């Protein structure tokens, strides 16, 4: 990736010069926040948003809030260096905010009594369809729409040729081939597990039901009837002329995303104006079949735990039935959005950024005064000598190695198959990242060198990456094909430290590791009685092999930790 800041781009506008001038004047002539009798955007959120623009977390931000009346808009930053500010008609990639639109197509068919939410995949496609039998027999449309299908977030074989274009290589044939082999990571209906893959399949099923391409069905039945003229999967030239250029976490130009087989999970583009109109239609649905479908979207399908957390169709829900909030975020390589509304109230909030950094924390603060925006972490200059000391390779598991390199711009970390992340110094040892919001710390050894790298997730959990020497080599991550009878020899129950138990079971050409908590993890065989996860630092190594059989002892590598486990019998 080119780490230089982008050149100044020409100003682009899809409206007539007069219309564009009037839109700009409307923003310029809006009274400053201190003169508004009742501003809908508190000073605390304005200041937090501006501070993040100033610190380079976003290229620009567009914030809209309504309490039933006219929307109050706040526009900060520039769409490009020297370019215009965003306005309510600027077009953005909305990523996963596409999912409630997909769910609306599903709800519309269900409300017409032509489709049951509890119809299975097999009932939709026919049992002769070459998909995994568990998927066809057990997974329902409702489970796909509420992330309870047991499908993983993405296919194990996603492996994009360009990590900055995540889904561009994955077409419909690859999707169906994967789903025919080993789709489930958990038993359907038992766990909430967010799944882009589930929505990719749901989009395919809806195409079959409507006998129409997904984008055509969405336009004919949802966006056109609601007057959402600037919401589309395939924008026309006039719309594209209004599109905000995308920037990554570090304000370098990011490519637009092509979602291919995952279009129903995240391929829509839209504007702040349209998203406000979309949410208003759900607060005051028309007395039509479409209105009934929109009402169904924010009805709880199942509870997710405390604080009134629940899942609707497409929307995530917070709060009690009387004060419920429906919300969803969306991110691509170069855009981030947040939308939320009160189904039984008046408030609607939309935030749009042409930067890949998430904006949920700003949106939640506008929906709930009790939610505060986290303090902004400020980086400081890094001594180049320290950068040279920290650069190197760090092993999280035998085959999963991250690389830290020093450039003129600073330190960058790269994990296998993922974009580089810039490390911003908080002090001489601690660094933060943007987008994934992790904190990293380099820990020295007694000799004054670097022993390991600690990676701390924002919601807890630490991964330890051990510093590698120049002569060390990572274990190969090459899949070794095993016959079913060979793979079955590695299955069984195992215990770590005599207490924690996990299971290994064959699944097509891989093993599934499960512990009874959350989805199973797929592990693929490699040379030397090893099994590895394709995109996580999780590996197994069977030790003590005798007479061609796997031994009773294995080593589990997870998040940089090494655990010894022993096989246990069925009677233990």
From TrEMBL:
Keywords linked to the UniProt accession: Hydrolase
Stored Gene3D superfamilies: DD-peptidase/beta-lactamase superfamily
Any one GO MF annotation of this record: hydrolase activity
UniProt superkingdom: Bacteria
Annotated ranges, domain Beta-lactamase-related: 46-358
Record's keyword annotation contains Hydrolase: yes
Presence of keyword Hydrolase: yes
Pfam families: Beta-lactamase (PF00144)
Stated name of the protein: Serine hydrolase
Organism this protein belongs to: Natronospira bacteriovora
Lineage: Bacteria, Pseudomonadati, Pseudomonadota, Gammaproteobacteria, Natronospirales
């Amino acid at each position: 990736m080119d780490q230089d800041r982008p050149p100044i781009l020409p100003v682009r506008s899809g409206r007539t010069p007069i219309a564009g001038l009037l839109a700009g004047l409307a923003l310029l002539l809006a009274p400053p926040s201190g003169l508004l009798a009742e501003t809908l955007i508190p000073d605390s959120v304005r200041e937090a948003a501006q501070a993040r623009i100033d610190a380079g977390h976003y290229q620009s931000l567009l914030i809209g809030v309504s309490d039933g009346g006219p929307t109050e808009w706040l526009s900060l930053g520039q769409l490009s260096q020297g370019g215009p500010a965003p306005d309510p008609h600027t077009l953005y990639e909305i990523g996963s905010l596409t999912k409630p639109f997909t769910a609306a197509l599903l709800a519309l068919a269900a409300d017409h009594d032509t489709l049951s939410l509890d119809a299975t995949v097999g009932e939709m496609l026919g049992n002769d369809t070459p998909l995994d039998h568990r998927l066809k027999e057990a997974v329902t449309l409702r489970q796909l729409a509420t992330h309870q299908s047991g499908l993983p977030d993405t296919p194990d074989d996603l492996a994009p040729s360009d990590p900055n274009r995540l889904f561009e290589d994955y077409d419909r044939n690859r999707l169906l081939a994967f789903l025919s082999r080993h789709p489930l990571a958990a038993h359907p209906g038992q766990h909430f597990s967010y799944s882009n893959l589930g929505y990719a399949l749901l989009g395919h099923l809806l195409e079959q039901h409507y006998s129409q391409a997904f984008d055509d069905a969405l336009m004919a039945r949802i966006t056109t009837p609601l007057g959402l003229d600037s919401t589309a999967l395939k924008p026309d030239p006039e719309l594209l002329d209004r599109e905000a250029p995308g920037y990554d976490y570090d304000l370098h130009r990011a490519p637009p995303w092509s979602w291919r087989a995952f279009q129903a999970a995240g391929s829509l583009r839209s504007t702040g104006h349209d998203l406000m109109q979309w949410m208003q239609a759900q607060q005051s649905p028309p007395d039509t079949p479409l209105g009934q479908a929109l009402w169904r979207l924010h009805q709880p399908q199942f509870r997710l735990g405390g604080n009134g957390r629940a899942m609707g169709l497409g929307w995530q829900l917070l709060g009690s039935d009387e004060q419920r909030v429906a919300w969803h975020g969306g991110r691509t390589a170069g855009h981030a959005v947040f939308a939320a509304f009160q189904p039984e109230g008046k408030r609607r909030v939309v935030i749009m950024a042409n930067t890949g950094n998430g904006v949920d924390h700003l949106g939640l603060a506008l929906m709930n005064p009790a939610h505060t925006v986290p303090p902004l972490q400020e980086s400081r200059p890094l001594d180049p000598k320290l950068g040279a000391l920290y650069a190197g390779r760090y092993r999280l598991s035998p085959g999963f190695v991250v690389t830290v390199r020093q450039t003129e711009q600073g330190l960058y970390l790269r994990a296998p198959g993922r974009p580089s992340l810039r490390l911003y110094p908080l002090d001489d040892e601690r660094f933060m990242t943007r987008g994934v919001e992790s904190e990293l710390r380099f820990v020295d050894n007694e000799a004054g060198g670097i022993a390991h790298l600690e990676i701390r997730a924002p919601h807890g959990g630490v991964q330890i990456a051990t510093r590698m020497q120049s002569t060390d080599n990572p274990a190969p991550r090459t899949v070794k094909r095993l016959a079913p009878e060979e793979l079955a020899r590695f299955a069984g129950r195992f215990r770590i430290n005599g207490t924690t138990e996990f299971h290994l079971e064959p699944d097509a050409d891989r093993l599934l590791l499960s512990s009874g908590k959350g989805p199973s993890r797929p592990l693929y065989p490699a040379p030397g009685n090893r099994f590895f996860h394709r995109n996580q630092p999780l590996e197994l190594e069977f030790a003590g092999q005798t007479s061609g059989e796997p031994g009773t002892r294995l080593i589990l590598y997870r998040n940089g930790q090494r655990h010894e486990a022993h096989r246990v019998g069925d009677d233990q």
